[in-house]
Design brief:
- This protein is α+β, with helices and mostly antiparallel strands and 126 residues long.
- It has a single domain, classed as Beta Barrel (OB fold (Dihydrolipoamide Acetyltransferase, E2P)).
- The chain is built from 4 helices and 9 strands.
- The strands form 2 sheets. Strands 1-2-3-9-8-5 form a 6-stranded antiparallel β-sheet. Strands 4-6-7 form a 3-stranded antiparallel β-sheet.
- A hairpin with a 2-residue loop joins strand 2 and strand 3.
- The radius of gyration is 13 Å and the shape is globular.
């Protein structure tokens, strides 16, 4: 499983790349592997206000449907439109082409509540 060192992680298996006050969000390699083949992704709408810990989308795979939880609070300012036609990007490239959305954070300090790569690796190793 890939766990890039420069990202932060939620215990719900979302990753965050924070640049200034903007957080790019996706699901982890571990999450996409557990889901299996992704067939549909529902991302939040641009302009949606999200709160850390709340469900803000879902991923449907051949195995199940899973909620996606906001790792940071703020306003959704961009979504990955490519996922509408190519949801399998979550499987093939979860940390780059498979990103979900970008959030303009209301409290960038929330990043401190997320796991670093080492802690996330410990979580998935059980």
């Amino acid at each position: 499983m890939q766990v890039p060192q420069h990202l932060r992680y939620s215990s719900d298996h979302e990753w965050v790349a924070l640049e200034g006050t903007r957080a790019k969000v996706g699901i982890t390699d571990y999450a996409q592997d557990a889901l299996g083949d992704v067939v549909y992704v529902q991302v939040p709408a641009v302009g949606a206000v999200v709160k850390a810990g709340d469900s803000f989308g879902e991923v449907e795979s051949t195995k199940s449907v899973s909620d996606i939880y906001a790792p940071m609070s703020g306003t959704v300012v961009a979504v990955n439109a490519a996922l509408a036609d190519s949801p399998e990007l979550l499987n093939s490239d979860p940390y780059a082409a498979g990103w979900l959305c970008e959030i303009e954070c209301t409290d960038p300090a929330e990043i401190d509540a997320l796991l670093d790569a080492g802690a996330y690796q410990g979580l998935i190793d059980g």
